[in-house]
What does this fold into?
Amino acid sequence: MATNKLIIIGGGAAGLMAAVTAYEKKLPALLLERRHRPGLKLLLCGNNRCNISHDASAAKMLQDYGTPVGEFLKAAITAFPPDRLREWFARMGLSTIVKRDRIYPKTENSDDVLHCFLDIMREEQIPYVLNCPVKCVAKENDIFTITTENGLFFQSEKVLIATGGFSYPKTGSVGDGQRIAAELNHSIIDPLPGLAGVDCEDRLLAFQSETDIPDVAVTVLAAGRPVARTRGNILCTGSILRGSAIFDATRAIARQKLTEFSIQLDFCPALSTPPENLSRLPLPPALVSRLAKKPSWVKSYNLQILGIRPLKEAIVSVGGVSLEEINPETMESKILPGLYFAGEVMDIDGPTGGYNLHAAFATARLAIDSMTCVKKAKTMPQRPASKPPRPQSPRERYGDPRKLSRRW
Ligand SMILES: Cc1cc2nc3c(=O)[nH]c(=O)nc-3n(C[C@H](O)[C@H](O)[C@H](O)COP(=O)(O)OP(=O)(O)OC[C@H]3O[C@@H](n4cnc5c(N)ncnc54)[C@H](O)[C@@H]3O)c2cc1C
It folds into this structure.
């Protein structure tokens, strides 16, 4: 059996970036993907608009990830900050735009991000195998043997696990990478739903149709003390609340492993006191008339919540392969040399706004950079000189990508 240089397990955001980066670095790699299509979760991102990163400095991003994720991601994000990510995608033919600090493909269509990767993989003949769920990984005499659920065997000098977290399991991220890592003696932090909705029994926020409250501050309290504050929108759908303010609050709850907590809302965070005329606030009229009955609720309302929505519905899982056992400068296992990790399979997560895809892309690049002994890319890697520059966008090359995606 031929021994591969590198096998990448998982063809999501991290695995696809790893495969293309390995090609750039002239490291032959084979990607194995569980599902019949790669990048299924990538397609869902940002309501199919794909918020690929956040328009901020590396330092600000690291601060926003918080402890311990920010410390762990320092080398990865410093080497591949948002402006470099935008440059990289532009060179690959995908222009990007910024909307309210969030970076999207210019077409605001997640198909284009996936096709950006798949076009390169097809054009450069980067090999990948679909319908190929990896069952286990073993290492003997410096060589990894990778066994798949459908009875195939592969050998490789290095392995990168990029199998994602536990949420949206239909996209293929079912926790396999964490199980494989545990079998290879890694510790796994139990997953909890992060960036999840909450169930509530709250008449104040019960509306007949889906209603968006654009700017709310959420304070999470534990034992009566504030432990996290988030700000953003709240989307009320029946008895379920979602939106960035709620999502970021549930991530904080999961990170701090809070079992007992309460949530307080401030419906006019921009003002220290509510205006006399509440209808001046950017609030739905039905909410304004309910708040008018008790104006003190405008600045401080205790939300009656029943619980957090389940992990399978969360945007990210908080938990995964313990960061203590991964070298943050290289993404290599401290336990088993030659084994690397990228993306959400690790105990990394970020707030809403492109932080999670950015972390997947940046950790994948760092893993490949370190395998090819380039610690930090000082200059942007160039495509081989013989290749003509890529046209500006997949849409330019092939027409409407939505039509293209139907063929795939
Ligand atoms: C609805 C939704 C919207 C989101 N929107 C955004 C957004 O706009 N911006 C943002 O930053 N983040 C967003 N996220 C989060 C983001 O999608 C994830 O953090 C990111 O995709 C993680 O990338 P990953 O490569 O680590 O994992 P994934 O993208 O989940 O990819 C893992 C891949 O590994 C494969 N795999 C799993 N097990 C095996 C196995 N045994 N063998 C072979 N292959 C395997 C899976 O099939 C999958 O293709 C969103 C998430 C969801 C669910």
Summary: The two ends are 31 Å apart (CA to CA). Residues 374-381, 398-408 have pLDDT under 50 and may be disordered. Residues 46 and 57 are 21 Å apart (CA to CA).
